[in-house]
Specification:
Helices cover 38% and strands 17% of the residues. It is of the alpha/beta class. An 8-stranded parallel barrel has the order 1-4-5-8-9-10-11-12, surrounded by 9 helices. Belongs to the ALAD family.
């Protein structure tokens, strides 16, 4: 036999599906998925989000049906986002006992018990007149006043029955403030999954349509991480860990796989990633034009996020991916 033939033939392990399954290195299951759920106050029927095909805002009356569908797909967790009927400068709707998210948490807990993990976003952008994630003094975000409000939001969600609060406002010290108020009030079992490295990103634009939370002036450059600064992102993660966070998050996911990998390598803590609205919209838009196969691209993206090191993924593809995995 000629010595020119390769001695190592890696394709031997790819010759049929059973062999490929046997040596598959990255495994993905429905247990890796968290499904976002938008609930809108005073809404009478489902309302589709124009910039996010197949994603809907739900009235409270439709939440049970939605969560049942999610549960039936074997997805273990939901992430609740609320859209209030009224906004004010103090973001009051985010922390009142009868707020839309608080009602949704209570509703899901009553109907599903411990059979699904209830997570809820802790932020103010949907609830403030300004559309900013914190409380304003003049035209400036007041970090420490915002911390007090965010802590009250988390406490109200804990009282309603949430499993995990998920602060996304990017205020310095938010994890410490939330952990303190939860523990002080006896909610030591409520976890915190912080949006630790939340970048200032154009990938959020469709979400702002879905949650009606675009800033009314300026931008969020003073409190979200610049996408040019990976060391700064890692310092944010380290700060949250020092403050007692239970799960850290990198957000967005696809353009920040390096940071997911670095976080997994550097820290012994569960790592989540948020595959955000812009990532979803890009795939859906191209698929609708017939340029790509939606299922194939969806799978490749989500597997890449898992391969980078994410233990769990918040994604608008959660239901579609779960249906694909369950086949």
């Amino acid at each position: 036999m000629s010595a020119s033939f390769p001695a190592r033939r890696l394709r031997r392990l790819r010759k049929n599906e059973k062999m490929r399954n046997l040596v598959q290195e990255v495994l993905f299951s429905t247990n890796d998925l968290i499904c976002p759920v938008f609930v809108q106050e005073d809404l009478k029927e489902r309302s589709f989000v124009k910039s996010m095909p197949d994603i809907v805002r739900l009235p409270l009356s439709e939440v049970t049906n939605e969560v049942q569908e999610i549960k039936d797909l074997k997805i273990p967790a939901i992430m609740l986002f609320g859209i209030p009927s009224r906004k004010d400068d103090a973001g009051t709707g985010a922390f009142v006992d009868d707020g839309i998210v608080q009602k949704a948490i209570t509703h899901v807990r009553k109907n599903f018990g411990e059979n699904i993990v209830i997570m809820a976003d802790v932020c103010l952008c949907q609830y403030t007149s300004s559309g900013h994630c914190g409380i304003l003094k003049g035209n400036t975000i007041d970090n420490d006043t915002s911390l007090e409000t965010l802590a009250n939001v988390a406490l109200s969600q804990a009282k309603a029955g949430v499993d995990i609060v998920s602060p996304s406002a990017m205020m310095d010290g938010q994890v410490k403030a939330i952990r303190h108020i939860l523990d002080e009030n006896g909610f030591t079992d409520v976890g915190i999954m912080s949006h630790s490295a939340k970048h200032r990103s154009s990938f959020y634009n469709p979400f702002r349509d879905a949650a009606d939370c675009a800033p009314q002036f300026g931008d969020r450059k003073t409190y979200q991480v610049p996408f040019t600064n990976p060391r700064e992102a890692m310092r944010e993660i380290e700060s949250d860990i020092a403050e007692g966070v239970d799960i850290v998050m990198v957000k967005p996911a696809l353009a920040y796989l390096d940071l997911i990998a670095e976080t997994k390598k550097s820290h012994n803590i569960p790592v989540s990633a948020y595959s955000v609205s812009g990532e979803y919209a890009l795939v859906k838009g191209a698929a609708q034009l017939g340029w790509i196969n939606e299922t194939d691209i969806m799978s490749e993206i989500l597997y890449s996020i898992k391969r980078a090191g994410a233990d769990m993924i918040v994604t608008y593809f959660a239901k579609k991916m779960a249906a694909h995995l369950n086949k």
